[in-house]
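fold-stage: in
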Amino acid sequence: MIGILVITHENLGQHLISCATHVMGEKLPQLNHLGVFIQDQPEAIFSKARVMIDELDSGEGVLLLSDIFGATPCNIATRLVRSGKVECIAGASLPMLVRVLCYRHEPLPVVIEKALSGGQQGMVHIQSAS
């Protein structure tokens, strides 16, 4: 099973996981979050994330989800990427996370593809019926 670490600003990752748990209807293993707050030192967060990745990895890899490309959480996650072992996707959303959770028993490249499609398909312009 692919481990998932959500690295976001403040408590966004915690809230995404809470909502995903509600949608999925069960406690989800090998899933954790790491919030980055204004007072945090990036190197300390980086070190903590490395430990968390080791805890989440059962040998099949870890997918990192971050909120905003180019922001501190994503920059930290980018430094953690190890091709084929630890991968990262920016732009985390609830549809993306739920899709990842549904396919996390697949190989990491498949989970990445499902995450991207879940994020894209989760964006829908809803127009007025009248």
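fold-stage: in (second)
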Amino acid sequence: MIERLRFRQTEILEERLAAEAKRLREEAMSLPPGAERERVLREARQAETGSHVSEWLRSPGLRAPE
């Protein structure tokens, strides 16, 4: 049986997603206007949205549905 390589994340998911969004936005600014730039910006927005959703889900005020 093949053993999986496992490692612990040192940063929380929200931080990793925010850093990825920032990196993608910087990359997009170096690209000329066009399809590739729009794709990179879309990925940045998705990472930011994922960060916000994860932060919301981890918030202490979130209650289970009744």
